[in-house]
UniProtKB/TrEMBL annotation:
<dbReference type="Pfam" id="PF02645">
    <property type="entry name" value="DegV"/>
</dbReference>
<dbReference type="InterPro" id="IPR050270">
    <property type="entry name" value="DegV_domain_contain"/>
</dbReference>
<dbReference type="GO" id="GO:0008289">
    <property type="term" value="F:lipid binding"/>
</dbReference>
<protein>
    <submittedName>
        <fullName>Fatty acid-binding protein DegV</fullName>
    </submittedName>
</protein>
<keyword id="KW-0446">Lipid-binding</keyword>
<dbReference type="InterPro" id="IPR003797">
    <property type="entry name" value="DegV"/>
</dbReference>
<dbReference type="InterPro" id="IPR043168">
    <property type="entry name" value="DegV_C"/>
</dbReference>
Amino acid sequence: MKTAVVTDSTSYITQELREKLNIHMIPLSVIFGNESYKEEIEITAESFYEEVKHKDLPKTSQPSVGDFVTLFETLKQDYDAIISIHLSSGISGTYQGAVSAGNMVEGITVYPFDSEISARVQGFYVVKAAEMAADGKSPAEIMDKLNEMKQSIRAYFMVDDLSHLQRGGRLSSAQAILGSLLQVKPLLHFENKLIVPFEKIRTRKKAMKRIVDLLAEDAASGEAYEASIIHANRLEEAQKWKEELEAQLPNVTFGISYFGAVIGTHLGEGSMGLGWVKK
């Protein structure tokens, strides 16, 4: 049985890796005024962060059900099944779009998977699914593995600029003003599919240290972990952090990823995240 693996652009898997692992990507979009751009195709993370310096914060848009139907109809020519892995259904209707399209396309079985998270941590599921599909594993085996991974996946994000959350309706104006005055750097995480505050910490340095402490607690078991540092236009800071973490936690393999246009719209430039999963 040949199984195709589909994800959306918010998993921020590089084009090189997508091509290597035969991962099919459907993009979300950012909309500046009347101009819509498909992220990872028509707008890069770098160009997005440059654009928002000169323009109002864009809106974001999920793929249409029709986009999914078109992709699934194409894939059924070469595949017997599709595993479609998407960002949390609590913050986007993308997963539901895959569910709806899967029910509409005949001749192929679609297995939608709600990652309940986003960014490169969502990508952990995608890469594992693609590797297993390449090894000829069945859709049922792959879905079982993804659900097993969900038990050990963790991710925490530090937001540098509260105004993005406030403008996106995730933080009241009063909280944003108060947070800015106090230099609060809220740590966020996903809980019940939603982005919610985990802790409020006074400084960026302390917030990042707190994230490391949380990873160290899990890694203290001595088991092998895979982790990804995720940055919003802060590559040099991410590289420096990676070097520090590799020295501290030898049983953790670290990579670097980024918050692209869609997630960056909600978190803002300067945000940093760290996600991990048991190998």
